[in-house]
Structure formats: C-alpha cells, structure tokens
C-alpha cells in the first residue's frame, strides 16, 4: 500500500480510481464495509482503491475543545487500511485551505483533481465541505455533473442500533470492552512507545512497560486481561490503567505486565489489545497485599486469554507498519 500525508500539494494519481473519504476513527465494522466496497469495486474495474482520511481528527482544527480522544492513531489506521486491501491511503491534515472548500470545490479540486475519482463510495451519513454542507444527495448531484458514480453503503447495526465511532467511544468509556470488540471487529487496542517508569512494578515482582498513549482514549481505571503485540510475537498480559493509589500516584497511566516475556523494551513500540476488565482500581494497604492481588489477577488473565485465544498468539507487531 502506498500512503501520503500531503494532499493539496500531491501530484494527481496516475490513473482513475475508486475513492472513499472520511475520518474513519476506529475503522469499525461500518467503516470496514465501506472500504471493503471500495476494494471490491476497484478490483472489478481494474482501478486502484483509495482511502482519504484525516490526521489529526478534523475537530482538532474546527473546534479543538470538542475534539475527541482517538480510537486509532494514524499508524494503526494505516495498518488497518492495508489489511483491508487498500492500494493508496492519504492521511491529510485539515489545513485552512482545505477546510474552507465548498462541497463542489472539495469534489472538483480534491476527489477529482488529486485522486481522480471515477467512483466514490460513502456511508449514508457522509458530510463534506465547509460547514459540512455536502451530503449524499449533494455528492450524487456533483457525480452527475462531473461524471463519477456514487455508491452508498448502509450502516452496520449491532443490537438494533447503528455502529458509529461515537458509540464505540461510549462503550470503551463505560468499560464495555466486549461490545466495543463487536463493533470494531477486533479488540480495542492502545499503541505507543514504551517510556521510562519508576520501577515500582519490578520491586514487587511485576515489572511493567509504561505506555505513552498520547491522545488515545483510555477505558475506566482498573486491571485488564490483554494481548501484547511486539515484534517478537503476541503475548498474554495484565494491563493496568490508573493512578497507582497504593503508591500515592496522581497521574493516570497505562502500564502492562507482559507474561512469559523478559527483555529491555524501553523506547520500542508495542500494542496492547484489551480483552476484558478483571477488576476496578483499588488502594491496597501495602505493596505486599498488592502483589498478592496481582498474582490472582494473573491467574484470571491467563484463564480469560486462553479461553478466548483466536490462534494469533504469534501475530507480531510489524516494524514496517511503524515506519511513520
């Protein structure tokens, strides 16, 4: 898969293409259905499949105080696009010139002028252009004018309700990891570099890798059974999210104890796939009591992860996917 971060300054693609566009935060099953249709149409027509997305989230530019925490950082988004069979991905920054475009200017200047869209695939809630004035009907009208076809993919539903990034975000905020998993089509995960901690876990027999989660959405504080992806493979783990009240901590952290693994991983990337919450955050009377509880948590996590294992224990974190 080819990918670009420059949109307005990029050369037009060499051939006509099948395109979709949107924020695609989470790349949930609804997004996957749209992108899958793009790839299907592209294969049928012998054209490249193109996904235009935005990084950072457009609200960071339009209304920074309303911008949500991310479900998928750009590196993960690219990995998911590639896994879906996309030929070309563009992760564009919503710069002022782009944000000021009318729906027609966006279609004519970007979708046709840069991406050479011959077919455009969107969901029913598609919106684009300044003030979000563009919608499916506007897009179809512009398609008639400029000679491209528009395909609208219906929303995916779970438990009778449409799947959306907002609904996924709410499930994670409420600790409903299984519901989030159903909507995402995979475990919700945190991706980042391992940063230096204070070594407290190591002193009680549970060394942890502290994860720089940047702007990613964290679930409620507590201990989770998790899969940990490293270049060496996929390992069982115990993820802790919280303020470490036993040690008078104040800052919320995400740190993971990787089971059956040893090695120096400071500065390296890892991905933690959250499977299920084991318990909420708790203050213990002593480090020894905490260590005893962590031993119980470990046994529970091992049972949970063995029971739900999907046969991908050795699915590694590709260093190529982190080259961004």
Q: How would you portray this structure in words?
A:
The strands form 3 sheets. Strands 1-4-3-2-5-6 form a 6-stranded parallel β-sheet, with helices on both faces. Helix 5 packs across helix 6 and helix 7 (165-173) runs antiparallel to helix 8 (177-184). It folds into 2 domains: 2-158, HUPs (Rossmann fold), CATH 3.40.50; 188-322, Elongation Factor Tu (Ef-tu), domain 3, CATH 2.40.30.30. By secondary structure, the chain is of the alpha/beta class. It is elongated and about 70 Å long. The mean pLDDT is 91. The chain has helices at residues 29-45, 59-62, 74-83, 96-99, 103-112, 136-146, 165-173, 177-184, 200-203, 287-308; strands at residues 2-4, 17-21, 49-54, 88-92, 117-122, 149-152, 157-158, 161-162, 188-195, 209-211, 222-230, 233-242, 253-258, 269-280.
Between the first and last Cα atoms, what is the distance in angstroms?
13 Å
In what order do the strands lie side by side in the largest sheet?
1-4-3-2-5-6
The third-level CATH topology of the largest domain is: Rossmann fold
The top-level CATH class of the largest domain is Alpha Beta
Low-confidence parts lasting 5 or more residues at pLDDT below 50? none
Oligomer category? single chain
**H/E topology pattern:** EEHEHHEHHEHEEEHHEHEEEEEH
Shape: elongated
Beta content comes to 25-35%
CATH-defined architecture of the largest domain: 3-Layer(aba) Sandwich
**Tally of discrete structural domains:** 2
CATH superfamily of the largest domain, called what?
HUPs
Number of strands: 14
The structure class reads alpha/beta
Radius of gyration: 22 Å
Give the overall average pLDDT: 91
Largest sheet: 6 strands, parallel
Determine the number of helices (DSSP H or I, runs of at least 4 residues): 10
Portion of residues in helices?
25-40%
């Amino acid at each position: 898969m080819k990918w670009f971060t420059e949109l307005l300054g990029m050369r037009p693609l060499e051939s006509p293409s099948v395109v979709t566009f949107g924020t695609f935060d989470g790349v949930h099953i609804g997004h996957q259905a749209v992108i899958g249709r793009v790839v299907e149409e592209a294969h049928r027509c012998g054209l490249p499949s193109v996904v235009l997305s935005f990084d950072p989230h457009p609200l960071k530019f339009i209304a920074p105080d309303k911008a949500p925490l991310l479900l998928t950082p750009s590196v993960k988004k690219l990995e998911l696009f590639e896994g879906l069979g996309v030929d070309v991905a563009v992760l564009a920054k919503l710069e002022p010139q782009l944000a000021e475009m009318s729906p027609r200017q966006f279609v004519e200047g970007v979708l046709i002028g840069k991406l050479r869209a011959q077919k455009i695939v969107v969901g029913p809630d598609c919106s684009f252009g300044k003030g979000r004035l563009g919608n499916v009907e506007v897009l179809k009208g512009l398609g008639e004018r400029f000679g491209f076809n528009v395909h609208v993919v219906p929303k995916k539903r779970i438990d009778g309700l449409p799947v959306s990034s907002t609904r996924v975000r709410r499930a994670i905020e409420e600790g409903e990891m299984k519901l989030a998993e159903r909507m995402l089509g995979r475990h919700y995960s945190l991706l980042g570099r391992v940063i230096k901690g204070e070594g407290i876990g190591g002193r009680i027999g549970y060394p942890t890798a502290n994860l720089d989660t940047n702007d990613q959405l964290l679930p409620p504080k507590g201990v989770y059974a998790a899969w940990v992806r490293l270049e060496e493979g996929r390992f069982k783990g115990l993820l802790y999210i919280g303020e470490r009240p036993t040690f008078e901590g104040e800052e919320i952290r995400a740190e993971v104890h990787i089971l059956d693994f040893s090695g120096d991983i400071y500065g390296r990337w890892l991905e933690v796939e959250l499977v299920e919450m084991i318990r909420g955050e708790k203050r213990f009377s002593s480090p020894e009591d905490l260590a005893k509880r962590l031993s119980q948590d470990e046994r529970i996590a091992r049972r949970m992860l063995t029971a739900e294992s999907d046969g991908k224990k050795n699915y590694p974190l590709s260093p190529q996917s982190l080259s961004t």
